[in-house]
Design a protein that fits this description.
Shape: elongated
Strand content: 25-35%
Distance between the termini: 48 Å
Largest sheet: 4 strands, antiparallel
Helix content: 40-55%
Order of helices and strands: EHHEEHEH
Strand order of the largest sheet: 2-3-1-4
Number of strands: 4
CATH topology: Alpha-Beta Plaits
CATH class: Alpha Beta
CATH superfamily: Lrp/AsnC effector binding domain/regulation of amino acid metabolism (RAM) domain
Number of domains: 1
CATH architecture: 2-Layer Sandwich
Structural class: alpha+beta
Length: 112
């Protein structure tokens, strides 16, 4: 199954709720992810642009989008970013295909 990185930033209301009642949010979302056929690989609280980072194994893009929409629609998050992750083998295959695609950037062939 494809891997995804979810980066979540809380609203002030979301933080207020967590401060009032501290909780492991990765454990809290585990059942919703599993209901969509996915699995939480790991998750971390962080600081900076995002407050929580989670890696999930989801059956497909639609399921990954569904959990991102559920996170965003809950009202506790001000930002939800979901990034598909490629294995090294997938990345190498993509690089080979890019080289075979015949794409020509707009900057090629420009008059000097």
């Amino acid at each position: 199954m494809p891997l995804y990185m979810h980066q979540i930033a809380y609203t002030s209301e979301g933080w207020s709720a967590i401060i009032t009642q501290p909780q492991d949010r990765v454990a809290a979302v585990r059942s919703a992810i599993e209901k969509l056929g996915g699995k939480v690989i790991n998750g971390w609280f962080s600081f900076g642009q995002y407050d929580v980072i989670a890696i999930t194994d989801m059956p497909d893009h639609v399921s990954a989008a569904a959990i991102a929409i559920a996170f965003a629609g809950g009202g506790a998050c001000k930002s939800v970013n979901t990034t598909p992750l490629l294995t090294q083998e997938e990345a190498l295959e993509a690089m080979r295909k890019a080289g075979e695609s015949g794409y020509r950037p707009a900057t090629l062939g420009r008059a000097a």
